[in-house]
Amino acid sequence: MRTNHRHRLAVSATTVFLGVSVALGSGLATPAFADSTTVSAVILGVGANEAQRIVTWYSTVDVAQQVQVAPTATLGANGEFPADAVTFAATGAANIATSGGFNRHSTITGLRENTSYSYRVGSAGDWSTVYAFSTQDFEGDYDFLFYGDPQIGASGNVAKDQAGWTDTLDVSLTANPKAELLVSGGDQVETANTESQWNAFLASDKLRQYPWAATIGNHDVGGKAYEQHLYTPNTDRSTAYYADGKGTATSGGDYWYVYKDTLFIDLNSNSYATSQGGGGDAAHVAYVTDVINKHGSEAKWTVLVYHHSIYSAASHAKDADNKVRRVDFPATFSKLSVDLVLQGHDHVYTRSYLIKNGAKANPDEQPGQSEVFAGPGGVLYVTANSASGSKYYDITTPDSSGTSGAGNGADPLKPEDYWYNSVQNQEHVRSYVKVQVRNDKLVVEDVRSGTCAAPNASVELGLSCSNDAATKGVGTVVDKVTVHPYHGDNQDIQVNVPALAPGEFGWTIDGQNGLVDLGTAAQQKDAFFLSADGKINPIKVTDSRRTLSPWALSASVGDFADAAKSFSGAYLGWSPYLVTKGAGATAGSAVASGYDNGGKGLSESAVLGSAAQGHARGSAVLGADLGLKFPDSVDKGNYRTTLTITALSS
């Protein structure tokens, strides 16, 4: 776009100068603000897509509140928000928890890619601290981090659990500052409605800088605090997705979102049997099927997340409820071409073999194999270990119950492990899972975020630890696997379209932009006026913008002047036309000289040419026949004026 450039050409006798300006600009003001004494528990959550975030918080007062957002670059020198900062109204209700107070949440929409934003919550005069987050490209490769069971309070020492959880967030995000999502494996806290545990879970500002994709665990489900603290997008809170089939005093719901090329579906696995009162696994299977049928085409990858691991190796591996899910889920997940399932609950790290319809997909896949090829229906299941160190479960021994379906038999290739697990690990050290989402592969790795040393609450409180910090220190990899997707019996062809420049809108004056000379005005026989004719120098408009936004070139003139002598520019009119078609251009309407109709002629802005939204990209050349008609009472002279053309576009 051409800005702040002015071209002048002259016409004589009258003579006309032509110029241009482009209308742009906005004004910013900066109101003062103060930290709030009424707002707490602020957390940034994932939205329905890349351009959204959900912010949730608590308030001690029941007043209308909002979240206010602005690009960080527009804040004042002292952090003042600009006058045009966007606000989003918050909704919420009184807390059904021991804390009292009120919960609030608000969805930020319309975010731009590759932009740093600042935000605050509350109300005018009672704002929270200002926090910040950044968006990245809305297309292409990205990384997300998956965290198992912080379960703050599980060790019996909230402060130690908080220290370990905060350290894992610091370690993982220092190593992966460009990670785009933080995905939960469930069990944020030990006791559902204990706000001191929630406060410890939320203590790190990393949870206000990176979007948290919440998952409900069995320790979160027993009250409403989970729903109050962690509002989620596209959430179906039908009673079928609550364990008790009611949800009046418990948390629940299933939800989904699409982030870049990934469809994420998150389930409340606490509801697994209809005897509890809810819809059980059948309801979840129907939900997953419906979401994938409706939205699977929007993504290349499908990732499911729920708390209760059906392919784990520790204390919960043989739980009756997990055996039920192990029968109910896998065939559907294989049929729907799910790529990855992320789980928690068992406080141990496991990576399954590729599983198809509840059995090992490829009998020849080896333990710990670093590259796997999904084949039709092959699904990878991953269980995350504790991210806080509040609780670990030791690996248990397989039995003789079988090597498919609900069985917990031994792996023929590695008898000490369960038949379904390619990797099992328990060192009693904190870890997190990093997932790299790439064009044609998923890379999944379990990374140590701690050692036997503090902060590691369970070990500090007496649990043994087998980690060797010299060779298996912070940042070292426990396990890494690359998953290649199945492409069927045909050949898929892919092309990557790089980020393109947005294109430009601008204009140039065709030729040398010489004086537009209307010559010597002629008096008409038996008339009381003079007239002169001519043409403007053609103007070339070029629009290569991908937005295909509308544009218009308009023009107006001032009075014709020769020293102290003058006459009105209203006497000049024109008839625009297209010299060369293109860029969706249409010529403006003719404007008559004001001499004939007492009008304002070109002293009032008139359209030379324009194009509508969605027009073709390209160039057009605009011209106009000029017609000047003025009274014979005008004194002799060599008069000039300037025709200013203003280019406007959204």
TrEMBL record:
Does Signal count among this protein's keywords?
yes
Q: Give the record's keywords alphabetically.
A: Signal
Cited Gene3D superfamilies: 3.60.21.10, Purple acid phosphatase-like, N-terminal
Residue stretches making up the Purple acid phosphatase N-terminal domain: 42-135
Matching InterPro entries, A to Z? Calcineurin-like_PHP (IPR004843), Metallo-depent_PP-like (IPR029052), PAPs-like (IPR039331), PAPs_N (IPR015914), Purple_acid_Pase-like_N (IPR008963)
Its signal peptide is: 1-34
* Name of the protein in its database record: Metallophosphoesterase
Q: Which organism is it from?
A: Actinoplanes awajinensis subsp. mycoplanecinus
**Which classification does the entry list for the species?**
Bacteria, Bacillati, Actinomycetota, Actinomycetes, Micromonosporales
